[in-house]
Amino acid sequence: MNEIAQRDKGAALPKGIVKQFLKGLYYPLDAMLMLFREKLWRLALIPIVVNLFLMGLILAAILFWLGPYLNQLDVFLNTLNLGPYLSWFAGFLSSLMWLISAVISFLLSGVFVYLIGQAVASPFLDLLGERVEKIVLGVDEVPVGLRAMGRSVVMACSDLFWSIFVWVILHIPLLLIALLPLIGAPIWSTGSFVVSAFIVAVDFAGLPMARRLVPFRKRFFILWRLRWLSLGLGTALFVLLFIPGLNLLALPVAAIAGSLCYCDGRKAGLIAV
Q1: Is position 272 within any domain?
Q2: CB within 8 A of 27, min separation 6: which ones?
Q3: Spatial distance between the Cα atoms of 208 and 262, rounded to a whole number of angstroms
Q4: Is position 273 within any domain?
Q5: Distance CA 186, CA 8 (A)
């Protein structure tokens, strides 16, 4: 047995849909533990700063755009003669609209951090992924230069395009199903979540393969063979992206979690690139 085969050989992945899904679901937790146990937080600092900057910028832009409309609503409510018993309702409705706007802003910021932050922080996410591979598989890290960093950004931008393209294509039949009475909406919402979770998993579990210049299409089908593991990972990361505060850690945690998933696939002999 050659050196690579010996290095990659390891315990098989758990059998069964539920066990594989649960293992994938726990990858982000394992990633958080590894982040501090292996002192990877130093490498994670720049992606976190990128997250923080992008989130602040996006929140400010959204609230700046919504602010005038909410102020107009306040003025309109104050002009209504609701009487002493209903005057509290105007204040309640105004506060409720500001709260809903803040929640929507946080959700949208999570989407933009995922879409834009991944491309901007891609060189540093690659460094994290390489360090995880060295710890788990013993793979030597490749010295990082400007050329490699530029290639990471270009690859990340290309992946962003293909992720959105595949997401849209897979949603076309779901939209047709959504037109069915009664059963259409539940099928559409479930299918949309599954597609989105799997695309997120491909984006992050595919990072080590992207560094090896494996095309997006090939990465997609490789991870489809590990679909239940990937869906567990994607589900956890999808939720993580939309939890205020925790989503600041989303990019480095997702990069580490995706690399752990890749390493397990390598050790199980299901990923050969």
Answers
A1: no
A2: 232, 233, 236, 257, 258, 260, 261
A3: 7
A4: no
A5: 42
> What's the full length of the chain, in residues?
273
Question: Residues 166-192: pLDDT tens digits?
Answer: 988 998 988 888 888 888 888 888 998
**Is the CA virtual torsion 163, 29, 54, 255 positive or negative?**
negative
pLDDT for the residue numbered 22: 93
User: Into how many domains does the chain fold?
Assistant: 1
Band (pLDDT 50/70/90 cuts) for residue 60 is confident
| Predicted model pTM | 0.78
Q: Quickly state the pLDDT bin for 7 (edges 50, 70, 90).
A: very low
- Please tell me the distance from the alpha carbon of residue 172 to that of residue 177, in angstroms, as a whole number: 9
Q: CA–CA separation, 249 vs 246, rounded Å?
A: 6
How many Å separate Cα 150 from the centre of its chain?
22
Q: Where are the alpha helices (DSSP H) in the chain?
A: 3-8, 17-25, 27-37, 41-79, 87-112, 118-120, 122-137, 146-178, 184-205, 207-211, 216-224, 227-240, 250-267
Range of the domain at 20: 3-267
3-class SS letters over 119-170: HHCHHHHHHHHHHHHHHHHCCCCCCCCHHHHHHHHHHHHHHHHHHHHHHHHH
Name residues whose C-beta falls within 8 Å of residue 31's C-beta, 6 or more positions apart in sequence: 253, 254, 256, 257, 260
94 within some domain: yes
State the Cα–Cα distance between residues 257 and 234, nearest whole angstrom. 10
Q: How far apart are CA 90 and CA 114, in angstroms?
A: 37
